[in-house]
Each structure stands twice: as C-alpha cells, then as structure tokens.
C-alpha cells in the first residue's frame, strides 16, 4: 500500500512492500482468509503451542461488529442484502513496526488478537516457522472437516441407473 | 391518548424472577447448554439466524435458550442485539455457484451434472416418532463416498444456453437496505428479496402456498435446491484488497416457472429466487415462489388481485417482529383509552334511549 | 500498551466509545446553537486537516457515508487514515454526505446534495476549514439563537442563499485548529 510506504518506518516499508506485490498480496489474502474461518479452539491451541508472545502496540483494539452479507438475484444477477454476520477485528503493530490485521468471523476477541499477531509474524522472518507450526496444521484440519462433509454428501448422491435396472430387487 | 402511570415495579421484578425459574424448569433435569442447542436444535438456530437477520449460531442458540424456545421471541432478542453492533461494511455478493453442497436436488433435470445429492434430509423419513431418541445412544457413523471437489454448476445455466429462460440482468448496483432506509412503494426486487429472506417463515409459506392453489397464476418447478457453505469475502479498506472474513451456510432455491409470454416478453421460462441463511429449505422455496409472484409488473403480467402479488401487502406484513410488536402491544395497559370509549358508548346508548343498567365493572 | 502514532493508523480516538460520544455531543451542541464555538480536538489527523475537522470525520463517518476531500485535503495519507478509522468511501462532491476543505476548495456549492422534499436530510454537510474562527462578523438569527449571534462566516451572501432553500439545503461546520462552530440551514444570516 502506497500510504504506509510513504509514511511508515523503515521496517514497515520492507514488510509492506513484500505484501504489495501480486504474489505477496495473494499469499496474505490466503492466510488472512484461513485465519478468519479457523475454529477458535484449534487456532488458540496452535497459537499457544507455537509459544511466541511478541510485544506489540494496539492500533485498533478488538471490536465486534456486523457486516452485511450480500447475495445475487438468481445467483448471478444484481446484488441484494441477505442479512448480517458478526465479525471481530483488530490491528496491532510489532516492535519493528510490522502491522498485523485480524478479521475473524464471530465475536471472539482472543481469536482476532491471535489472527492479527499471526498476520504480523507472517510478514517477518518468522514466516516459515509460523506457517509450519500454525497455518499448515490449521489448513489441513479445516480441509479434513470439509472433506468429511463432502464424503457424506457424496454417499447420498442418487444413482438412478441402479434404481432403474433394479439389480438388487 | 397516552398517559404515563407508575406502579408495578415489584410485580414486574417478581415476574422476571419467576420467568427465570420457569425457564430453568425442573432442576432435577440437567440444564441445557447453549452448545447443545446450537448442535442439536440447529434448524431452530437457523430459523432464528435467518429471521433475526444475523448469522451467528452461538448467539441464536443463546437467544433460543433465553426465550424458552419461543422462536419469535428469540428472533426479537437477535434483532435487538444487532442494532448494538457497528457495521464494518458490506461483503462482496456470495458466489453460490461455488457452494460446497451438502444437498443439491433438481425437480426438472434428473441427470444434472453434479447429480442429485440428497444430503441430511427429512424427505424420505416415515414421519413416525422414533422412541429410540428418548434414550441416549450412539449414532452410527454415516456412510461416505468419494467426495466431489469441482464446483456444482447451477441448473439454470443449462437453460440459459438456449435462451429459453429469462436471464438475470448483470449489475453491480449498490442494493437498497430496508434496515437503513424507510420502505417506499413500489420497491425494487432487491428490497423485496431482503424483506422475504428475513420474513416470517409461516407467513411466507402461507403466501407461497396460496400461489400454488391459484391465487396468482404461476406454476413453479424447483429447478434447483442447494444447501451448503459459501465463503464470504469483503474488501478491507485499510488493506486495499478483499479477504474471506468467514463462511456461512445457505439454502438457495431457484424455481423455473411456465410463462406464455406477455405484451412485452416472449414465451420463455421465468425465475423465482430464494436465498436464506442456514439449512432452511421450506423458507427458501417459499421465498422463491413469492418472489416470482411479485414480479408480475416487470413481466407485463396482469394483476390478478392476489395477496402474493401485492407488494405492499407482502412487505408490510412479512416481518414477524413488526407484527408481533404491534399485535402484542394491545395487551398492555390502555386504561385511559378504554375509559374514553366507555364514556362514548354510554353516551350513545343514552342517546339511543337504551335504559341505563348498572355496570358490573364499576 | 499505547496507541501507535504511525500516520495512517495513529491519531484516532484513544478511547473510541467515550471520545466519539463527547465529540458527538459537541457537534450536536454547536449545530443546535449556531454561533457557539466549542473545543473539539480528540483526534490527530494527518496534515493539512485540523484536529477539529478530523474529530468530526471520525465521529460522523462510517462505511455508509461518502466523504469528499476537497483540494489539498485529498492526500494519500488522509485517505489511508479515513479508510482505517472510519471505512468511509471517498466520493465526488455530488455524492458526498460530508465534504471537507477550505471554503475556496469546497466551492462552488451547486454540486452538493440539498435533499429532497420527502427527505430533506439526504443532503451534504460541509466541514469548512478556517484560518480564524470567532464570534464576530455576520449576524445570525433563528432556531437555537436567543435574539442574535455573530460568527465569522467565509461568505455570508452564499450562506444566506443556502438558507433560502430551507427546508432543503446544506449544513455547515466551521473548524479551526481544535475549535468548531456550526451553521444549520435553518439560520437566517444578515451581513454584520
């Protein structure tokens, strides 16, 4: 972001430049999206398991609010307002000036704080360690949950062919 | 005329205390945890989220517990809570075409790509009470099969290829929000859909049923019904890009309706649309039918005078919190109002020469 | 832990709930009593915005209010600050709910929304940055004013023209450093 680059500290200029490139932004989008949907118990367990407690200053203390979720008419047409969902957000800065943002679904301030700290650390030299210790296991656990549901759904798929031939009857 | 009177504080406090006791019920029976309501009464939770217009399963479960299972009271609690939240913004429209489907059926195409996936449905149950549930017990694990990874395409896409179904005009216009601006009629389809998705399930169901029975002529097929989760994405102003801020479970229903054509439109299939928070398929189908009935004007159809075609009637009466607020307020003290009516009726009776009788109430 | 003073992220309210409630009360009071000047300085926006104008923006704006940054106010720093603290979109004068800048930068008045007869409130509020703000100059009369008040207005004739549109029209805050005054459309103006 140009804004932070112009006015930020030296450290911040480096980190934000990393996040600004297409690939960097895409990667950050990826981990922030993962953190937003992470189950609370698992995220907090992984975070405390990682064992870091970096000192930081709040830029925005955790606050819970709502966002208006939109849908599209007929699935593909003009947008309409569907209803709100709860979101908790916060922003903080590490001692080296790295800024971390936390946006998580629901009302947990602890989750938002952990997400912001992880977002900040992912922009520092600790990135690969954080990815190994937190993001990868998180992504894996969430994928397993999703696969389990999809596998159950797949088992309820109707096979008309079998029904018509009546092999079992 | 309204006149303030004081009194009853002690009675009210004691009523609240008794309410709390009654809510708990027999203390020799284990207390319900909010998580139990969230997990085991999830369809009630879904209804409270949809009509409370706030997606948060834990809050909806808490509201149900607090309301002693009165869902409209629970919806009231959620509506009151949501007014205390600052609004951070609006999301990008959810992409239901990318839904991870738990259920996906079509009544129009047997062999739809992606298949007919029943999901955890009541449809083929025998509606016989299952007394095994009165005892606690392990549930056998549901069978699994090779999961599908690719997105499931919308059924209407196939019809669209032939232009045989009305197209949804593409637009990125900012939709109206009935929680922010006062209603005015005629309203747009954006406001109608917002009103229907948070409308009372019973009311919307009744209206939808009336269209099927002939009050507004539209013969609907469920082109597609899908239930599953979609990611919710929002632009974050301070980041300058969008991230996923969560995921929600949705039920989407697209109806395909016969349409012989009108002065302005060629014969083709037309569409009704329902999209509702949670697993709420009765509501989503009802919403789609009423949405279609309300579209008579844009399709050049006749106003048949049916309730489901009357936008002002539908939108003014679909909100159960508005309705119950006005309905239930008449049980609150109206002593002065009634006193003046009493005087008036007595006066009219005197004028009509009716003999004065002693009022037992006096 | 203290709040950082990083330019885009810092300079917000130290205690958002309390600070915004106090600021809102000050804004409401000056609007209710045209000519009155009050302190309003709990935010520290990036230059060139005054503390009073910055505090007003943080108090009154959110993602649903469009803000027009006139002239020298439209800097990347200020856009970033506004985005982080309020989420308010930056828009053109004709779509603005709030506009901020010096009088010369905000001119002309024609493009701003003046409301409709059904919804006179769907109009813009202009935050005018002033070099000086004092209870001298044009004479004000109308609701919220006992007899008359005086205020150093940037252009009494143009503002009197706006008052003629009542119940439609624009409302104004005047800001200078950490001070604020206001002029609603309901105030009649005569040259002092």
UniProtKB/TrEMBL annotation, chain A:
Region (Disordered): 1-25
Keywords associated with the record: Lyase
Molecular function in Gene Ontology: lyase activity
Domain of life: Bacteria
GO BP, sorted A to Z: organic phosphonate metabolic process; organic phosphonate transport
InterPro entries per UniProt: Phosphonate_metab_PhnG (IPR009609)
Keyword check for Lyase: yes
UniProt-listed Pfam families: PhnG (PF06754)
NCBIfam families in alphabetical order: PhnG_redo
Name this polypeptide is given: Phosphonate C-P lyase system protein PhnG
Gene source species: Antarcticimicrobium luteum
Record lineage: Bacteria, Pseudomonadati, Pseudomonadota, Alphaproteobacteria, Rhodobacterales
UniProtKB/TrEMBL annotation, chain B:
Region of interest (Disordered), ranges: 166-188
Keywords assigned: Lyase
GO MF, one annotated term: lyase activity
Gene Ontology BP terms: organic phosphonate metabolic process
Full protein name: Carbon-phosphorus lyase complex subunit PhnI
Top-level taxonomy: Bacteria, Pseudomonadati, Pseudomonadota, Alphaproteobacteria, Rhodobacterales
From TrEMBL, chain C:
Gene Ontology MF annotations: lyase activity
GO BP terms: organic phosphonate metabolic process
Domain of life, per lineage: Bacteria
Database matches in InterPro entries: PhnH-like_sp, Phosphonate_metab_PhnH
Record key words, sorted: Lyase
Parts forming coiled coils: none
Pfam assignment, any one: PhnH
Keyword Lyase in annotation: yes
Protein name: Phosphonate C-P lyase system protein PhnH
Organism of origin: Antarcticimicrobium luteum
Higher taxonomy: Bacteria, Pseudomonadati, Pseudomonadota, Alphaproteobacteria, Rhodobacterales
